[in-house]
Amino acid sequence: MKQDRGYIVVLALFLLISTPLVRAQDLASFEKRITVKTLENGLTVVVCVRPEAPVFSFFTHVDVGSDREVPGITGLAHMFEHMAFKGTDRIGTTNYAEEKGALERVEQAYHDYDVERRKEVGRDEKKISALEKDWKDTMAAAQKYVVENQFGQIVEEHGGQGLNAFTDNEETGYHYSFPSNQFELWAYLESERFLHPVLRQFYKERDVVHEERRLGESDPFGRLFEQFAAAAYVAHPYGQPVVGWPSDLESFSMTDAERFYKTYYVPSNLVVTVVGDVRASEALAIMEKYFGRLSAGPKPEPLRTIEPPQTAERTVVLRETSQPVFVEGYHKPGARDKDNAVYEALQDLMSNGRTSRLYRSLVRDKKIAAFSGGFNGFPGAKYANLFVFFAISTPGHTPEETRDAIRAEIERVKKEDITDDELRMIKTRAKADLLRRLGDNQGLAFQLGTAQSLYGDWRELFRAVDHIEKVSKADIRRIANATFMESNRTVGMIESTQLAKAPAAGKETKP
Amino acid sequence: MKRIFQSTLPILFTLYLLFFAPASFGQATDWKQIQAPPLHAFQTPVPTRIQLSNGLVIFLVEDHELPLVRGIAQIHGASRDESRDKAGLVEIFGQAWRTGGTKNKTGDQLDDYLEARAARVETFAGNDFVTVSWDCLEENLDDVLSVFVDLLRQPEFREDKIALAKNQINTNISRRNDSPFEIAFREASKLVYGADQPYGRVAEYATVAAVTRDDLLQWHKRYVHPNNITLGVVGDFESKVMEAKLRAAFESWPKGPVAPKFQVTFHRPKPGIYLVQKNDVTASTVQMVDLGTTRDNPDYFALEVFNEFFGGSLASRLFSNIRSKKGLAYAVGGGVGAEFDHPGVVRLFMGTKSNTTAAAIDAFDEELDALKTNACTPEELAKARGALLNSFVFRFDSREKVLRERMTYEFYGYPQDFLEQYRAGIEKVTQEDVARVAQKYIHKEQLAILVVGKPADFDRPLSSFGPVATVDISIPPPAGGRK
Fold first, then answer.
1. What count of other Cβ atoms lies within 10 Å of the Cβ of residue A306?
2. Which of A64, A292, B424, B450 is most buried (CB neighbours < 10 A)?
């Protein structure tokens, strides 16, 4: 892309004109810069004008994650996220008409193989091998039409930055940034990926996802948190790993993925947020033109399963050669609950910085942990979730020692009011931390899109500070007492079979 | 003056639409039909550079979007400059500098003072430099700036916080073999730079224990002088006012000895197969490494283009062939690393299930062999150059990025227009250049191949690739452990 010299002259002229400064920091100023529109097909568009530099970022939020998976298809929401990079009927193929047939043959061959392979009685190993070979042959035949990673290639070649996507327990997100002159190309690409998705290389990508799972398995924290979540939830899908269980990653099919996509990737389940150097009216017109092509579908009904009240404490202990880790979680309501701000305040009190209670107790004074915190919203925010306490012990110290120190701090917040200084600090920080999150296109797109999807209104991003402003000392004690109960608790630990020895204490003189 | 840019941009954008927007927004059915208008001109704010008579270099960039001010002092003298028998010294220094407080206030008092203002003043130790930074609301600038100045010039390094820092570092030592990826990156650095050399060596319990408060005070005395510091400030202030504040704070600070230029000769790793046995994993981590180059090397621009299509992007050869086509890995990539004043690392990396470990090495070998006959196609050149040039605007799309870029060039003694040179350099890269640098910097036979994994589950023994050197990663125990 060549730069246009004429513009430098134009720019120079405008340098001579001074206009009053508008500061972008409060809800009122964002009201002027944000436009929200629900298209006829039900898709919600949020446009936030931020002309700091000739670039923009977007965030496509899909209101589905592993929460909608059932046994047999765990990991499928995440799998679809990977497939959304495989292109369309025009991107990623040398000949879609022929490729389409080839992909149908892959799916038929996989079905035949899968039925035989999963027979519980009377499996014929020879037949399985033959069917597996047939399936692999059809994959090789379909591969001939593939233009490798062309979707990503087009984005990168046109200056796309930070191209990525994520899936969690309740949502799937797609995002990147572009120079602002590529707005129409972006609208085309982003709408096409959901209008004409082609699930090419599905079974190779399933292997890639299984590799991603192994990456987590090879890390002690990954192993601990998978077991901890599975223990904390007996009914709600928050207990399932987002990446999926190994057996499902070796079984689910392209047909399963298509069914999942048709149910959940309906426009009414999508919020597309754009932030940056755009003009609202032009951006909306282009987005309406491209995203308006998606066919309307019924908004999926809310999830039925609610985690039943926990009545007995649960504990998982991993005995490993790796060093100790302690975690414990307490069930509590989701982010839409009226008391969410109280939990946010508790998180700040317990975890934020060197004045936080857990840092001062476990790290600074007792010296039994290198890190400790208490966090609101594990493993997700939308549904009833966990408030989780966490500690990494220092050499020679066991997870039980950190547990006891955390419990002492929990008892303190249940029995005594927090101080005026602490409450003031929490509220001051909430305001400042919001400001710190507003100076970045991609970060703003994430936050506005998430608030719009979760609360039906992007303004909740700003109102969250007002909610925290209203939190009282009594609220904190009330919530701590209602939440932090033994019967409502799940504990996870790594106990080390090779506990590190504590180095000899150096001479320490008090200041 | 600089804020005018901000308020004129919307007007410019309107003009741009008038001139360049397509007459009708016909809906494209193919991406090739979409003609992007030229990106409108965007004048990056030029940081104001001020040099005090004592040598302190200051960069100021106004940014009035939000009522925040951030500052960072980048200081010469870092981990790479510490002695081997006190490895970890600068890390302790970087923590205890802030937590240990100043002559006037303990670290805990600073915590209370700053947190009440939702402000941060932090110190950080890196390999190349140490930083002292602040981040505050504009309304608290004077309060926070005074803490920053006090901390920079009068740290106390109280013993209790030195012990706390040692406790943190010892925790990291005790846990450093828990994650296979951490092991792989650490051991690869040792292979490339040398286990006793800067960038390769690591702190041990004994070297941490050897560090005293006096070492930290001496380190401060040796390096923290105005003429060893680059200070950058970005945010909601008037440059003239900020300049006056900083002059008042620093002008009287006397010069000190100049930090010596970092000069270490690194030797290339010994080629071969290196194995770290780790039995609690289901996947292997594979790295193939060699010594890379520096950014002032004229070959740097061709290498940037090479990296983009070889292993640095979503559509790169390594990603497409090893991940998408073969399904062998989730994490895969690589390229020729270049640093500012010391060689980077040539690295190919991959994670793959234990029983495709040898297949993964085969797959890398295949890509390395392909480079010999087909280092770069015209399409790869066009796409990689397009990606680097079209995304160039993201190098300076925020005022803080512009500031950091300038500070970096100042710190390493690079020309202040290096970013412009970069763009011009990338534009000139030819297919021949890329082919030449691929041959020059990547030598299949010279690579050290490191595998972290569970050998019992491998598809083929590593010895099928050559003699295997086993790497011992056991942690030397602390002398006379407590208990």
1. 10
2. B450
Supply the pTM of this predicted model. 0.93
**Which region holds residue A92: left if phi is over 0, alpha if psi is between -120 and 50, else beta?**
left
| Architecture of the domain spanning B48-250 | 2-Layer Sandwich (3.30)
A387 and A425 co-located in one domain: yes
Do residue A354 and residue B108 have CB atoms under 8 angstroms apart?
yes
Average confidence (pLDDT) over A175-186: 97
Q: What percent of chain B has pLDDT over 90?
A: 89
B153 Ramachandran zone, left/alpha/beta (phi>0; psi -120 to 50) = alpha
Instruction: Report the pLDDT averaged over residues B27-52.
Output: 88
Sheet holding B229-235, edge to edge: B48-51, B57-62, B229-235, B68-76, B129-137, B120-125
pLDDT digits (tens, 9 = 90+) for B308-318: 999 999 899 99
ipTM here: 0.91
* Contacts B216 to A, Cβ<8 Å: none
Cβ contact B166–A503 (<8 Å):
yes
Residues A283 and A330 in one domain: no
pLDDT for the residue A23: 53
Residue of A nearest to B9 (CA): A51
Whether B106 sits inside 8 A of A511 (CB atoms) is: yes
Identify whether A379 is preceded by a cis peptide bond (ω within 30 of 0).
yes
Q: Does B355 touch chain A (CB under 8 A)?
A: no
Chain B environment of A286 (Cβ under 8 Å): 25
CATH class of the structural domain B272-470:
alpha beta
Rounded to whole angstroms, the Cα distance separating B157 from B97 reads: 6
For the beta carbon of residue A498, count every other beta carbon within 10 angstroms: 12
Tokens 């006379």 belong to which residue? B480
